[in-house]
Each structure stands twice: as structure tokens, then as C-alpha cells.
């Protein structure tokens, strides 16, 4: 029999969500008390809130869950995707008062308090979502406890003086500071250099299962740092921020491609791959976030339901192949988002490199795109075989 875990029972202090256009929503404090500022975005997943909260890609963002009932399965020690909660703030409609799951060892609100995450509950999250869908993601602030009583003009001033997401480089906030290694659990292929821009643990586990000794390197690593581990391939992870503000990582990636090393990038790594090829990036109106995004694999015609977390995208022609502006041969868009025709994957036709804009590890599901780790393994194995035959 599972013993329910009671919620912490924090007093129902007031809280207010303030958007940069002056929109205000009054609710109840949830998690830590105080003030938090960030870009307000919505995530459409019906489950997987623990994986969402611990995804480093959400750094700098106040995340709204569109699913109305959050927290019923609590928090456990097995599902975190990183070492802490990264969201700047949290917005939910109806937090569960009781945790009832055999794996839970704490409640969500207690964990939010522990990690200092200011949240708000009891507001019309559907109304906020519809507003963002029309007006676009925007800066916002949650003011709770004593800060909820601040003058409305003062609250709005703080929000409008906060930095916009466009132009921000946030990788240094979430990346490891020293290299870490996850040994291969499958038949060993060789060392894999992972540039940690905000990598998730499930990604590392999937790569290790394909036979890579996974070397997680700081986001500030140079090509010399990468070459020092004698990698058989390079992987760029997901992460927060604006890809146009990551010139150093793009320059390193071009050295990787120039060296002929196989490459796989996901999410932020897709955007940086696009830039390395010579393509532009742009900010989406409200982004893609959630575990129910339909994507077309153009090679197979198969529609995958995928996990997304991105507010920026690559500019590229959807149909046909085109020449890389930076001289890496022919390139094609391999995957397309079916909701809005956004580029969701790139494949280089003349070098061993590809990327997708979503999360193939998809912790919390779905797992339609997990095959991409096998595809990466096959690309690396074929590349090594080609080298050995020369």
C-alpha cells in the first residue's frame, strides 16, 4: 500500500503574475516566496513535470504547465534530468494537495522551496496560454508573499527592465565546469565528446548505451580540448538561450566539421549546426514546448510524436537540397514540424553530420525518435570502417 505524502502546507500567501504588456493575474504563492523574472512560456505535456523542471534548457524561463493538475505523483530521486531545477519560475493551475505514488519521496512544492523556485498557482492558465499564443512569449515576473503587495507600477518596472531572451547566452549557467565521463554500457565504439550546453542525463545514458564513452565537456571547451580526448565523434546538446549569441561554440563546431569528425546535435545543437553550415536562426512567436509535438521524417514519411523545448529555429528551405553557404556541401531539411512547418532537422549529404530540433531521449516520453541514437551510432561506425579501409 502506498502512503500518501502530504503537501508542505505552506500558508496560502498571495501571488501575482505580471507580464511585460501590463497583464496581471492574481493567485496563490506556490513554492518559494519572493520575486522571480524571466521569459514566460508554456509547456503542453500532460505528464513529466519533474523532467521538465530539471531540463537545463528552461534556464531563464518561467514555465506555465497547460495541464491543469500538477504535482500528484510528487518528486523522486530517479527521474531528475540534471542536478537541480532550472526553471526561473513555475505557473500551475491546480497543484495537488496530496502526493500518491510509490516512487515519490517528496512533494513538488517542497522541492520548489528547496531549490528556491518562486511559483504561482490558482490562476487561469488557459487564459495566459491563449494570450501568449496571440501576443508571443514575453518577459514576466512572479511576485509572491510580501512582494505580492508591491506597487503594481513597481512590479511592471522590474519586469520591463529584465533582459529579453533574444541575445542571451545562458550556456555557462548550466554547463559543467570540469569534464565528466559516463562509461559505455553497450559494446564500446570509442570516446564521444559532448559539448554540454545544458545536456540531460537521459541523453548521456542513451549515448552510453550505444557504446560511447561519453566525455561531457564544459561549454567553453576549444577544439584542442575536444581533440585531446581523441573522439570518434562530437555531440552538441540541448540548452537555453539565443543561438545567435553563441559564436564561440559555432566556431568550434566548424573546426569539428573541418576535421571530418561525425557530428550529431539536438535542439540547441541543431541551431548551432545550422549556423555552422552558414544558415540563420530566428525567434519563434511562442516556441514549441511539450511532449506531444508532431514531426514529419521526410526520408520515411513517418510522423513522430516528439518532445520539444525550443524558442528559436533555423532558417532553411523545406523542400529539396541546397548548398551550405560555408562550403560543407549539400544539405537538406530532414524533419519538419507539422503544426507550423518549422525546420526540425538538418542532414548534411557530403559530410557525416546531422541534427534534430527536438529531444530523441524524450524522458517522460514519447519514444518515437529514440532511433536517432542508433542512426548516430551507425554513422560513426561506418565512418570508422571507411577510415580503416584506407
From TrEMBL:
InterPro entries: Anth_synth/Amidotransfase, CarbamoylP_synth_ssu, CarbamoylP_synth_ssu_N, CarbP_synth_ssu_N_sf, Class_I_gatase-like, CPSase_GATase1, GATASE. It catalyses: hydrogencarbonate + L-glutamine + 2 ATP + H2O = carbamoyl phosphate + L-glutamate + 2 ADP + phosphate + 2 H(+); L-glutamine + H2O = L-glutamate + NH4(+). Belongs to the CarA family. This is Carbamoyl phosphate synthase small chain. Composed of two chains; the small (or glutamine) chain promotes the hydrolysis of glutamine to ammonia, which is used by the large (or ammonia) chain to synthesize carbamoyl phosphate. Tetramer of heterodimers (alpha,beta)4. GO terms for molecular function: ATP binding; carbamoyl-phosphate synthase (glutamine-hydrolyzing) activity; glutaminase activity. Pathway: Pyrimidine metabolism; UMP biosynthesis via de novo pathway; (S)-dihydroorotate from bicarbonate: step 1/3; Amino-acid biosynthesis; L-arginine biosynthesis; carbamoyl phosphate from bicarbonate: step 1/1. Its EC number is 6.3.5.5. It comes from Microbacterium azadirachtae. The active site is at residues 267, 359, 361. One of its GO terms (biological process) is glutamine metabolic process. Transmembrane segments: none annotated. The lineage of its organism: Bacteria, Bacillati, Actinomycetota, Actinomycetes, Micrococcales. Residues 13-143 form the Carbamoyl-phosphate synthase small subunit N-terminal domain. Keywords: Amino-acid biosynthesis, Arginine biosynthesis, ATP-binding, Glutamine amidotransferase, Ligase, Nucleotide-binding, Pyrimidine biosynthesis. Small subunit of the glutamine-dependent carbamoyl phosphate synthetase (CPSase). CPSase catalyzes the formation of carbamoyl phosphate from the ammonia moiety of glutamine, carbonate, and phosphate donated by ATP, constituting the first step of 2 biosynthetic pathways, one leading to arginine and/or urea and the other to pyrimidine nucleotides. The small subunit (glutamine amidotransferase) binds and cleaves glutamine to supply the large subunit with the substrate ammonia. Residues 1-188 are annotated as: CPSase. HAMAP family: CPSase_S_chain. It is an enzyme of class 6 (ligase). L-glutamine binds at residues 57, 239, 241, 268, 271, 309, 311-312. PROSITE patterns: GATASE_TYPE_1.
